[in-house]
Structures are given as structure tokens and as C-alpha cells.
Design a protein that fits this description.
- By secondary structure, the protein is an alpha/beta fold.
- About 45% of the residues lie in helices and about 15% in strands.
- It has a single domain, classed as NAD(P)-binding Rossmann-like Domain (Rossmann fold).
- A seven-stranded parallel beta sheet has the order 3-2-1-4-5-6-7, with helices on both faces.
- The radius of gyration is 17 Å and the shape is globular.
- The chain starts with 5 loop residues before the first strand and ends in a 10-residue tail after the last strand.
Amino acid sequence: MVHRPTALITGASAGFGLALTRSLVGRGWQVIGTGRRADRLERVRAELGDAVLALPGDITDPAHRAELADIARRIGYLDLVVNNASRLGPSPMPRLADYPLDELELVYRTNVIAPLAVVQFALPLLGSAGVAIDISSDAGIEPYPDWGGYGSSKAALDQLTAILAAENPDVSIYAFDPGDMRTEMHQAAFPGDDISDRPAPETVVPALLRLIEERPKNGRYTAAEFATGVAR
């Protein structure tokens, strides 16, 4: 049988996850796609056809993750896992001194715990040829006021990714910062502002594909480092 490359992408129904799903399917990949909004995910499946195995659900739900794991195990392998699903938190974003702790817990469950849980079940299916990518943010490095909830969760995700990479040196494991993009979540971070100057997610996908193709040493990378035309 011909090996059909297969990816698992969380947050596949909108923004960067949708742009990546479209790009991979266009290259002959099969995508296991998940997202909270069943209607949006169904539109993706209708657009892209049988190449998308759509499974709506909340990635923080252990039962939903078990369903994803079951599908992947029935296929028997994964070539790529992209933990793209993220939770911004309240909009407008509150300062840490005023941050509702129940909301902060939801942010960490989505942005830290769930990605680790996905990698845990995916690692045996990835093998030495597979790639795992956690989508990061510069908010995980820079102490932007009002970004404490989201930013600290991405900082935790970066460290988690780095340790996973150190513990599994035979697997390609990366944190990838796509930079600002014109997405619904980015708009929620700046309610009422015009973000039309931000790049569309489709323009950032080639950088991630280049990372996957080049397989540099495990680490944290930005889209700018893999932009088309940048010498490496």
C-alpha cells in the first residue's frame, strides 16, 4: 500500500489551523481535524472532502482526546501533529492582578495540558520519522501588559515542548511562533481595532512547511526564520 501522509491538527476549523489543513490536503495529505465548532468543521470537511477526517469536540475533554487517539491508532501512524488550538482568555484581556482564576485555568487546560496530552498519545505513532509542533507566540517571551494569562500559558508550552524534545531526541519536536496573523482570536485580543494590516494565515503556512521539510535540530522557531527567500 502507498503511504499517505497523515496529520493531526487541532483547531483545524479556522485561522492558521484551517489554512494549514487546506495546504496539506492540496499536497495529498490526509488530515485528522478537530475543533470546538462542529458547524465550521463540517464546512471544512465539505470543502476538502474525504481527505479530512473531521471530529468536532473540545480538546480539553479527555473523552474527545481518546476519540482522536482511537482514530489515529486505527490508521496506524501519524506523520505530523500540530497543536494549534489555543484559548485567548477573556476579551478585553485583564491584567494579572484582576485575572479570573477560573478563566486562567481554562486557558492553561487548552494551551498547556491538552497539547501535552495529544503528544503523549501521538508519540508512539510518530516514530522517528514524524514531527510534532506546538504553536507558540511571542507573548510567551515578551512581558506584554494585559497578556499575562495567554502569554504565561505559551511560556509554559514552550518549556514543555523543549523538555519533550530533550526527552525524545529521535523525534522532531518544535515550538513554532507564527507571529501576528489576521485571525478571529487576534481580533479578540484587540477588540475594536483594525487588524487588517496583519498577514493572512495562508501567507504563514509556507514557513511551517519549510520547517517540516528541513527538519532542523529540535527547538523553538519563528515563521520569520523560515520565510521564503531567507537563506539558511
